[in-house]
Design brief:
single chain; about 425 residues; alpha/beta; eight-stranded mixed beta sheet; six-stranded mixed beta sheet; 19 helices
Length: about 425
């Protein structure tokens, strides 16, 4: 099989959450453990950072990888979902795994795959671990796919666990309250292994404290130690314990919400330094934060795609993420606002729609995946929230129409779903 045939084989044979949703989610780690055992337990052959959370885990993963790369470490990075190409999920020092490696690996392990019948995600995790092991990475940064306790990545014992902001998402699987969701995320905490929680959230702090105490895992609430201040010129200052720690940093990620992730990123790096990764200096941290996009290929975080009119895309898709996005929007200058939005059918769509500005003109779009909420249904829901616009299923056609309608001083924002953003030709 060539690469395209290999992907078609995997998509056809294995359930994929990205496409079909909850039906692809497995309720235990059995398949992942079977795959790893058959491959010689590659996850035990490299140190790792394990990152969970509702919002911020992707950008935190990329930022930590960027910092470690800047420090000279050969760094593996596993993230999901991909935007344009499957190979984005698995990188070493920013370079995507090759199509040839994937094709060869699947061919060599076809009998194992057909015996275990794993989900698409379970198989991808095993492939990543095997690849990182064979390439002898110095360290790997592993992003949880969903939840934590039962996530396929949760077969590793990391050097440090990091849990970012907790919000309402994937509630059909993870629970309907923040403490329930936090409990699933806390499932990545391991006995005796330090855990960093990016942000102290009063409603759920005790969930992490109880789990960390139970497992004798040192616990750090990063927001208790670090504060981030944005300057008028767009640079940031970092304070530690109320005192200036580092300044004049110009992060490559321009999304305001990224600033909330930085305390957890820095605290995680400091734990690594205490555990032997001592080459990570302040200059490595600065360089890593300033080159996240360049070093790792991260996309879709307040990413500018054009000017006159300004075109911004952002993968925010749940109430907490959209709320942060709207804060940045409120501080952005424009005359008229056009919003291209699409979502999937298992999200809290009504809450998201209730947050969106009524003065904007909307293009209701639909990603080309089975999970997508039909654009016509989205328009009907939006009407109940007094949001006005038109249905244009294809996001690229919608962008073309919005550009034709907009004046140079206007703003076009594409958001609501990772999968809608992923289909942008300009990305």
């Amino acid at each position: 099989m060539n690469y395209q045939q290999t992907l078609e084989y995997l998509y056809a044979m294995l359930p994929m959450y990205q496409r079909i949703g909850q039906a692809a989610f497995k309720v235990d780690l059995t398949n992942t453990l079977r795959l790893c055992e058959a491959l010689g337990n590659p996850q035990k052959n490299f140190p790792a950072v394990h990152i969970a959370g509702t919002n911020g885990k992707g950008s935190s993963s990329h930022a930590i990888a960027s910092i470690l790369q800047a420090a000279g470490y050969k760094t593996g990075l596993y993230t999901s979902p991909h935007l344009k190409e499957f190979t984005e999920r698995i990188r070493i020092n920013g370079q995507e795994i090759s199509q040839e490696v994937i094709t060869t690996w699947v061919a060599e392990n076809k009998a194992l795959i057909e015996d275990v019948k794993p989900s698409f995600f379970e198989l991808t995790v095993a492939l990543a671990f095997d690849f990182f092991s064979k390439e002898q990475v110095d360290i790997a940064v592993i992003e949880v796919g969903m939840g934590g306790r039962l996530d396929s990545t949760n077969v590793i014992t990391p050097e440090v666990s990091l849990i970012t902001n907790i919000g309402y998402d994937h509630m059909a699987v993870l629970g309907s309250t923040l403490p329930e969701i936090a409990g699933e995320k806390a499932g990545i905490i391991k006995k005796g292994i330090p855990v960093v929680v990016s942000e102290r959230q009063a409603e759920i702090a005790s969930v992490f404290e109880q789990k960390a105490n139970l497992l004798e895992a040192p616990l750090i609430f990063a927001s208790d130690l670090y504060a981030v201040a944005q300057q008028d010129d767009g640079s940031i200052q970092l304070n530690k314990n109320g005192k200036h720690w580092m300044g004049d940093i110009h992060p490559e990620i321009k999304a305001f919400y990224f600033l909330k992730n930085i305390p957890g990123i820095i605290a995680g790096i400091e734990v690594l330094s205490q555990r032997g990764f001592r080459k990570v200096t302040k200059e490595s941290i600065r360089e890593g934060l300033e080159k996240v996009v360049t070093s790792t290929g991260l996309k879709g975080r307040w990413q500018k795609l054009g000017e006159n009119p300004a075109v911004i895309c952002d993968v925010s898709h749940n109430p907490a993420g959209i709320t942060e996005l709207l804060i940045q929007l409120s501080k952005t200058k424009y005359q008229k606002l056009y919003i291209l939005i699409g979502t999937v059918n298992d999200k809290d769509v009504n809450t998201v729609l209730s947050l969106l500005p009524k003065e904007a003109f909307y293009y209701f779009c639909e990603a080309k995946i089975p999970r997508a909420l039909p654009a016509s249904a989205l328009e009907k829901l939006a009407g109940k929230h007094e949001l006005k616009g038109v249905v244009v299923q294809d996001v690229n056609q919608a962008l073309l129409e919005a550009r034709n309608a907009a004046a140079p001083e206007d703003l076009i924002l594409i958001t609501g779903s990772t999968f809608v953003v992923a289909e942008l030709n300009d990305l």
